[in-house]
Amino acid sequence: MYYFINDYNEIMHEKILDAITKNNMVQTKGYGDDKFCDEAKELIKKSFYCPNSDVYFFMAGTQTNLTIIDAMLTRSFEAVIAVDTAHINVHEGGAIEASGHKIMNCPNENGKLNPKYIEKIMEVNLKDDHMSLPKAVYISNSTELGSIYKLDELKAIWEMCKKYDLYLFLDGARLGSALCSDKNDIKKEVLAKYTDVFYIGGTKNGAPMGEAVVINNDALKKEFTRQMKCRGSISAKSKIIGISFAELFRDNLYFELAKYANDLAIKIYDKLKSKYKFYSEVESNQIFMQISNAQIEKLKQSFAVEVPYVLDEKTSVIRIVTSWATDAKKVDELIELLLNM
Q1: For residue range 149-173, what is the model confidence (pLDDT) as tens digits?
Q2: Helix H segments across the chain?
Q3: Are residues 119 and 157 both part of a single domain?
Q4: pLDDT tens digit string along 18-51?
Q5: Residue 95: φ, ψ to 5°
Q6: Any idea where the Aromatic amino acid beta-eliminating lyase/threonine aldolase domain is (predicted)?
Q7: If both were cysteines, with which of 59, 118, 177, 243 could 284 make a disulfide (CB 3.0 to 4.6 Å apart)?
């Protein structure tokens, strides 16, 4: 059995493992106050051209989203706007709702948020004091359907957020894959310009764990360490994350790994597009493909994939995910099996 279920089936890239092993017995202070985290922060700020931003390290994605959104929504009646397929809405166990805040959903368009829905929600809710009032907008790049935002789309969302005094938060769990997509036109140096906060996913791109949060809005920087502590988001051994991100960004490894994953996904799509229908555009390392349930049973004898959507009694959608560690030979075997079904 070979896994195409996600992009964190393996633990970490060998360069990161070597670096952690090398520094295993090096003594430092805890909670991110160490030379490894300091180096990683500077490398990230240099890579994304954001010298005035603040960088913080988290252990996991849900924890990251909860802590940031909770910092943005300071009054109990405030809410966050997100598409119906957003990770915070479907795969985080009600974490945002458990913090006392509402997620206001709108329809997705190929996994993405159209800013017209922000305006529709604001026009209604601003007129009625009995309703929750949005204060933040959540998007992810790449999205839950593997699609990516174009620069004009990001700018339009940003402008709508500024019109209504909303924070914009970009979940970058798969940011590397988005930025390395052949369809991408968002340069990494503009992310800090068109978001209040974004984060760089490490867990899904070669790190053993960890996400790097980049705060660009000065209003959110104040006392953010206390915000993290309140939400249980500071690890005593944050230096593991610091070492990981330093390795990822010292010599461009982060983007090399993401491109490798993307290239394999595009190969699968190119080989299968004449035979199968695809549920969403293939622009990153996630593939959503329509397939019969009978074919799924045959496929699962050799490969593990997710089945996120059931279309009818005979047809479902499978998700195939490639990663920095995917065996290219297994990709060929997967393609051959699907072509011969």
Answers
A1: 999 999 999 999 999 999 999 999 9
A2: 14-22, 35-47, 61-72, 87-90, 95-98, 115-125, 151-163, 175-179, 218-221, 224-230, 239-250, 253-272, 293-299, 328-339
A3: yes
A4: 999 999 999 999 999 999 999 999 999 999 999 9
A5: -60, -45
A6: 19-233
A7: 177
